[in-house]
Design a protein that fits this description.
By secondary structure, the protein is of the alpha/beta class. Helix content is 32%, strand content 16%.
Length: 438
């Protein structure tokens, strides 16, 4: 498919947008969902106008986690699409930072900087080093399944009703009540910090980190400083996103990974339309942790959502950067049991973490879970995709771009053209050699 000004419009489809970061559009039952918004520089609002000009209203905008290539473009989108976004779905781990970022960005960034530069900085550096090593590590290949821990049940009736999630509608009456703390921010908009105040606090904190980096130059200190600067950029994006939601009156829903981790029971979303796989929708209570721990982009805690398949509707699993499991070698699957009849329907999965090798356990979980026919990959760096993704020969692999082949991004996606569950693929088929070197 050529890089056309628009893409084919189907009743049910999922489209990977051609940007440097990651962003997907789902069209389902006449409604549009945007999952993540790429980098700030991607200008996702312009990309949507170019490739999906048929629709100027987004029923749901989802942010799966705080990585810059997922959240960076969303604040500007909300400001550009005033009155054209129905709901905003955000990670519950942010509830600990949004109130102070909104009311007192000076105090927030001062405390965040203090956690790095204070006398106890050695402890923070040790924690960060562990996080960095965890995110960049590659899991050993082999049978990663932990059958005794799989989150499955075999006593579900064989129908086509998705057994999880809430029966919310997309009307204002169908949206869960926002948590009290966020409602208080809405009611007290005049007390929130101005954008220029937040911007000065952000840039001042970044200058302090850069000075700290230069005081005793070393590879470790440089690595930590760059990571901390990323945290600050994440904090700014979270603040801008929350302020845009408040300013423009966008109903906001929160999905907590930690609550799911405790109960192993996901809930929330809109049943039979879009529901969380590894989160609980609720008013998450704040916890007393260091600021940086609330901002740290732990990929294994990325929110995962599914649009359940039916005989007439395209099923899509949005994996974000998740390995789709936890436990030793991520061998305990997050994916719940589908009704048997639903398991036979074709589905699309987005490539976990752009096809990165560190997320290789996810493909074992996908294989065990459902009738996945297509893996759709968006964004990523020259290190991606890895050999495990490239060796998934049982699936059709679609990519928006191919850094290894030096091919620029084009829109790629999957549609269900008619009610016989046949899929139509468009865009770029992956032809990378699994043995190719980066």
């Amino acid at each position: 498919m050529k890089d056309e000004a628009t893409v084919p419009l189907y009743n049910d489809m999922v489209l990977a947008l051609p940007i440097e970061g990651e962003s997907f559009i789902l069209r389902r039952e006449g409604k549009y969902v945007l999952v993540d918004g790429g980098f700030k520089k991607d200008r996702i609002d312009r990309v949507l106008k170019r490739y999906v000009p048929q629709k100027d209203y987004l029923d749901v905008v989802v942010c799966t986690h705080g990585d810059r290539d997922h959240v960076g473009g969303l604040p500007a989108l909300l400001d550009e699409w005033v009155g054209r976004v129905g709901q905003l779905w955000l990670p519950g781990r942010w509830v600990n930072v949004v109130p102070q970022l909104a009311r007192d960005p000076d105090g927030f960034f001062e405390q965040l900087t203090h956690e790095l530069i204070s006398e106890s900085k050695e402890a923070s550096i040790q924690v960060l080093s562990v996080i960095l090593d965890e995110d960049e590590s590659e899991v050993q290949q082999g049978d990663l399944r932990d059958k005794s821990l799989l989150n499955r049940s075999d006593n579900i009736e064989p129908d086509l009703e998705w057994p999880y999630g809430f029966d919310h509608s997309f009307s204002a009456e169908g949206i869960p009540t926002e948590p009290e703390w966020f409602d208080a921010l809405r009611r007290g908009q005049r007390e929130l910090a101005k954008d220029d105040v937040a911007s000065r606090a952000y840039h001042s904190a970044r200058r302090k980190v850069r000075r700290w980096r230069k005081q005793q130059p070393s590879k470790l200190r440089t690595r930590i400083a760059l990571y901390w600067l990323d945290l600050m950029e994440t904090a700014k994006a979270i603040r801008d996103l929350a302020i845009a939601a408040i300013r423009h009156g966008i109903p906001t829903r929160w999905f907590d990974f930690k609550k799911y981790e405790d109960t192993r029971r996901a809930s929330g979303g809109v049943r039979n339309f879009l529901v969380p796989i590894n989160a609980v929708e609720q008013a998450t209570p704040p916890t007393k942790l260091a600021k940086f721990l609330h901002l740290t982009n732990i990929n294994r805690e990325s929110l995962v959502f599914v649009a359940p398949p039916t005989r007439k509707r395209l099923g899509v699993l949005f994996c974000a950067d998740s390995p789709l499991g936890d436990g030793p070698k991520f061998g305990r699957s997050f994916l719940p049991t589908m009704p048997p009849a639903m398991q036979r329907l074709p589905m699309v999965a987005t490539a976990p973490h752009h096809g990165a090798e560190s997320n290789s356990p996810a493909y074992t979980h996908l294989k065990d879970w459902s009738n996945i026919e297509v893996i759709l990959r968006a964004g990523g760096s020259k290190k991606q995709p890895g050999p495990t993704f490239l060796n998934q020969h049982q699936y059709s692999l679609l990519c928006t771009k191919c850094p290894k082949a030096k091919q620029g991004p084009i829109p790629s996606g999957v549609a269900m053209k008619n009610p016989n569950s046949q899929l139509h693929l468009f865009g770029r088929h992956c032809r990378c050699d699994p043995s190719s070197k980066i």
